[in-house]
Amino acid sequence: xxxxxxxxxxxxxxxxxxxxxxxxxxxxxxxxxxxxxxxxxxxxxxxxxxxxxxxxxxxxxxxxxxxxxxxxxxxxxxxxxxxxxxxxxxxxxxxxxxxxxxxxxxxxxxxxxxxxxxxxxxxxxxxxxxxxxxxxxxxxxxxxxxxxxxxxxxxxxxxxxxxxxxxxxxxxxxxxxxxxxxxxxxxxxxxxxxxxxxxx
Length: 200
Fold this sequence. Notes:
The protein is mainly α. About 55% of the residues lie in helices and about 5% in strands. A hairpin with a 5-residue loop joins strand 1 (about 160) and strand 2 (about 170).
């Protein structure tokens, strides 16, 4: 994928997630997401707010969290107390937005939107289409960059094959399924196992 392809996938998912959120009940907004310790609302607030938080506020949050970046990100999302319709509108308005938060690249923007969209949709039993080529691209990125989620360390020794694209990686007994499920497994979401064949 080139940068134009990545941005198209990001924009597609921003709109799709906004459409999904637009139809949720209050109970669904409060439902646990796949992101441990995060509700659906927390994930939506993160997606809406991460481009609106100033660098100095992000640094202050990291200091308060004693350098724990995951905790700092979660705290920032929880502090972004906007009504659900505003969160939906802000996520939708990000389609076409091209600024990247400090400290990450476009690859991480793509990973964030694809994984977090499924963090919301899957536990709610709501459909959310993920472009197979984009999901396969992210799966490869997670496989190649062990510092992100340590995918090779946790899931090595197997051959992963996406049934909806020509993508594959690894050596060993085959694990197969849609590219989004392999991507989600590599991102550390155990719920992906139910959508894959060949994992025990």
